[in-house]
Amino acid sequence: VEIQADAEQVAAAPESSGQVAPDVCLSYPEYRMAHPxxxxxxxxxxxxxxxxxxxxxxxxxxxxxxxPLRRGCAWIEEHGVETEGVFRxxxxxxxxxxxxxxxxxxxxxxLGPPGSEFTVPSVCSMIIKFLMGQKRGWWTGIxxxxxEANKATFHKFAQLAKALRAKKESRDKCLEEIREALRExxxxxxxxxKTVSRMMYQISKHHEVNxxxxxxxxxxxxxxxxxxxxxxxxxxxxxxxx
Length: 242
Known about the structure:
disordered N terminus; 242 residues
């Protein structure tokens, strides 16, 4: 698996963000061999807890999106957007457990083509497990303890979720504020949220086939951000691409 760098994303990463220096000349297996350690944990009994920052540092040469999300979202976009009940139907716990062991120990591990082992429900379950394993962070709605520098931005992000839930502001005003808050995020969490939101946006475009709308998808991935997650899925192009 070759991971290509986005020059603008790498250039935009400030030294103070805590991001790892990008090493984009390495293939994914080469990078993993140089950065060993678990990249997904804290979801099954006796699993080591793996923080978001550790997962990024150990699995992404660009220093932006942890491998379980980058690869899982790309796989779903390629194979699963028209699958009925995508993210709603649970996958195989046995398979996901096996994948966690392999991705943590084997630099060559990759998600294979759709088949008896690699199914849409199981890959969705892997993505959900990663997000659920993040006890603190941008996705959970709970500030990461180690992220003192960005707590003000995090607070703004959380307040927008509350405003959307209470419907105290116009939708257009909320969209503008959400976009500005997203732009204030450090590169790694912003790109990760963008990656997940892009996948959900692509899924929701096929809602007449897969029966999954942004509100349903937000419920399935277990985020505490509620209406804010729905909005990021539904308004992906405005929030991330404009």
